[in-house]
Write a structure and sequence with these properties.
globular; two-stranded antiparallel sheet; Globin-like; disordered C terminus; about 0% strand; single chain; mainly alpha
């Protein structure tokens, strides 16, 4: 088994295909599409793939060049609970894993779906208000065993 999920899926190219397949499925879903009704960045799938890459053991390009974890969580916050939308987004993801050709290995497929299921719930942590999201959150990392200890997006401790 590859050292990271990122490596096992085939890196950025595979995650970009996954992000595109998932996004298309979400836009076609009558419930999940609501999350995109306000519009989205023209490079949404590339940005999403970069975020997933960072979370799954790839390079930290997302937070180095695009946005901080706190900004990501704020963007997904303040919308109240949306259990049905989350469940359907996970179903779209599981189907997208297969569509992108990443579902042939059940261990890889299970790891991807487990990550996305956890991440979907995590992004809803601050459903009351984006103002509740603390500064200096870090991207939670996901491995074959699940959430990597110490990377659960708690604010970094500032020393100095």
């Amino acid at each position: 088994m590859a050292t990271s999920i990122y490596d096992a899926v085939g890196g950025m190219r595979a995650l970009t295909a996954l992000a595109h397949a998932w996004h298309e499925r979400c836009l076609a879903d009558p419930v999940v599409s609501h999350a995109f009704s306000h519009g989205y960045h023209p490079d949404h799938t590339a940005r999403l793939a970069a975020y997933w890459a960072e979370a799954l053991g790839g390079p930290p390009a997302y937070t180095a060049h695009l946005a901080s974890e706190s900004e990501v969580v704020r963007m997904h916050s303040g919308n109240g609970p949306h259990v049905e939308m989350d469940e359907r987004a996970v179903a779209c993801f599981a189907d997208a894993v297969d569509e992108a050709g990443l579902g042939d290995d059940p261990v890889v497929r299970d790891a991807l779906v487990a990550y996305f299921t956890w991440a979907t719930a995590y992004m809803g942590t601050y459903h009351g208000s984006a103002d509740d999201v603390p500064d200096a959150l870090t991207v939670p990392k996901w491995s074959w065993q699940g959430l990597v200890g110490g990377t659960d997006s708690r604010p970094r401790q500032h020393t100095g």
